[in-house]
Specification:
This protein is of the alpha/beta class. 47% of the residues lie in helices and 21% in strands. Strands 1, 2, 3, 4, 5, 6, 7 and 8 form an 8-stranded mixed sheet that branches. A hairpin with a 2-residue loop joins β7 (272-273) and β8 (276-288). α2 packs across α11 (243-250), α4 runs parallel beside α5 and α10 crosses α11 (243-250). It is globular and about 55 Å long.
Length: 289
């Protein structure tokens, strides 16, 4: 997939959106099963985003790419009965995961919607804040999505977002991806195309925000840690939540999967802890207005 084609919304971009939709529909059950683990691992990022968004009672907050919805639900608690959270994802199955989670929490001020972040079906100047955790980097056209975000924000409104930082600082994702590429199961990522590390550069993320019309931008790095009891747990997790990687690993023959596990075991050795693994990561976060 050529980077230029993605950025100008051509045929390749449409094909990427179709495939991405199918992948995240397939991931939704796994995200529901692993929700508690994801919530715990990503707690530092979630807390940073909500602190910087600083929603007030009565505000309307939009969450893009909500997944299981936990980040937005913290905002919902802060905006109170007079406020509203619009919890969205472009995957209908993910929206249902969030709806079930919100129902279990007893939240009554949440509107659940299927929504394409690159074509936000909301009026201009209609929300007080937007939050997006690990979303923009996976979109076919993050510049369009950020421009749409700027459009729906009211004057003075804030966007709080996170993406993943440099691959070498995120071995929980980069090591498995590297091995899959080396073994010929994945093509090498092309610069500028969507992916886990497509916005890892602070300069690119800042440029995208400024290009969308945000004038006050501040970035920060937030460390996280993913824990797994053993390699089997890590591989199951990858197969159930890891988007494009998951689909590749699901399609491997059993002998190929065992070979992948063997290489992972050697590469993860520096992160062994208490009989399992603690894999570090760093999110690149930003608040903009």
């Amino acid at each position: 997939m050529a980077a230029a084609s993605v950025e100008r919304g051509g045929t390749e971009s449409g094909e990427y959106r179709r495939i991405s939709y199918e992948i995240w529909e397939a991931m939704a059950p796994g995200w529901e099963r692993w929700r508690a683990q994801l919530e715990e691992a990503l707690a530092p990022v979630r807390e940073w985003l909500i602190n910087e968004l600083a929603p007030r009672p009565g505000d309307t907050v939009l969450e893009l790419g909500a997944g299981a919805g936990d980040t937005g639900f913290e905002a919902a608690a802060l905006v109170g009965e007079r406020g509203r959270l619009i919890s969205t994802d472009f995957s209908p199955e993910m929206v249902e995961v969030a709806r079930r989670r919100g129902g279990g929490l007893g939240l009554e001020n949440v509107d659940y919607r299927v929504l394409d972040a690159e074509r936000i079906e909301l009026d201009a100047d209609s929300v007080d804040g937007v939050v997006c955790q690990s979303g923009y980097m996976l979109m076919a056209d993050p510049a369009a999505a950020l421009s749409e975000t700027r459009r729906v924000l009211r004057p003075g409104g804030r966007l709080a977002l996170s993406v993943w930082g440099a691959p070498e600082r995120n071995p929980w994702a980069s090591i498995g991806g590297r091995i899959l590429v080396e073994r010929g199961h994945l093509p090498p990522p092309e610069p500028g195309t969507p992916g886990v590390f497509s916005m890892a550069s602070e300069e690119r993320t800042r440029a995208l925000l400024q290009g969308a019309g945000f004038t006050a931008v501040r970035t920060e790095e937030v460390p996280v840690r993913f824990t797994f009891v053993d390699l089997d747990a890590y591989v199951r997790w990858v197969m159930e939540v890891a988007g494009p990687f998951a689909m590749v690993v699901r399609g491997l023959r059993e002998d190929e999967r065992e070979a992948l596990k063997a290489e992972l075991g050697a590469a993860f050795a520096p992160f062994a802890a208490d009989g399992g693994y603690e894999l570090p990561g760093v999110a690149l976060t930003a608040v903009a207005s």
